[in-house]
């Protein structure tokens, strides 16, 4: 059984804390290990993760609050966690309602950046206050249940102290567990807002797709657009069409080509997490296609799309410069201040430009 061990005397005065519990940890594809864990805070307020074996403790740093898991839900990212480019083993899960020491229900933003942990942001341009702040892309961040920070599929978890939001009493905890994925859906709609008169389509309106439909439905008070849900599951298509007030529901069934023939949309959201869904969404989009979900796997035709989603990159159809000298800086792009921590070596281009790109041998690019 989980137990919280609070230090006493001088240790308690110094702010030390220790929590011991058992949990399943993902160690490889479809393989979990049932292990004892301890989350503990030392006198310097630094949190550590200990496993009940000979492995070295994981130092997580300062700026976290210990929460007890009340509800947790499963995301498609959890199902694909073993193929994501982050180390294992790890306790996974990032959608949760937690309880504070005084019994208050809270939800959590999952990115543990400098700002989220209440640390000095002056040296991090991503976390520093200002209109260009992108703390969700802080190069030094770790992510709840995805990258190093132990997840919510355990009795206790650590949350970045500035990312904790009280759950209103009018929202039941079993509904509150959907706030994190709905926030992701709302962010997608705000990043790719429909315009008046647009035709908007959501491809794959199941878990995340249904939440995007909900976010789009809420936007219809601000502007008028036509909303379509595209699904290969007839029951899902009918249900979401009624629930979210879609103007059209297209059931693709086993003949997608016939179902979408002659259709096109100004804005398309792809939430299928599949290569076929991605290609379908591209074929339907006139102005913009927002890729919101990938499986994390490397596909033979479009590799590493997970990186594009993770880094929140926008791919445009701008005309490429004709000269090698002008082209090379574009292909060598990386986020400022990011190279010291990590680098995205994947460059996404139209197939028609392969000959041009290969004329820059120093880049050593591998094209599908």
Shape: elongated
* Structural class by sheet pairing and helices: alpha+beta
Strand ordering within the main sheet: 1-2-3-4-5
Helical proportion, percent range: 10-25%
Distance between the termini: 51 Å
Tell me the β content: 25-35%
What's the number of helices? 11
Q: Determine the mean pLDDT.
A: 80
Poorly predicted segments: 6-10, 316-320, 337-368
Annotation, overall tally of beta strands: 17
Task: Give the biggest sheet.
Answer: 5 strands, antiparallel
Radius of gyration computed on alpha carbons = 23 Å
- SSE pattern, N- to C-terminal: EHEEEEEHEEEEEEHHEHEHEHEHEHHH
Can you give a write-up of this model?
By secondary structure, the protein is of the alpha+beta class. It is 23% helix and 26% strand. The chain has helices spanning 9-13, 76-79, 173-176, 179-191, 207-219, 234-243, 256-260, 275-284, 305-310, 324-331, 354-358, and strands at 3-6, 17-28, 31-41, 47-51, 58-61, 64-73, 95-99, 105-108, 111-112, 142-143, 156-160, 164-166, 199-203, 226-231, 248-251, 265-270, 285-291. The strands form four sheets. The protein has a five-stranded antiparallel β-sheet with strand order 1-2-3-4-5, with no helix packed on it. The chain has a five-stranded antiparallel β-sheet with strand order 11-6-7-8-12. Strands 15-14-13-16-17 form a five-stranded parallel β-sheet, sandwiched between helices. The radius of gyration is 23 Å and the shape is elongated.
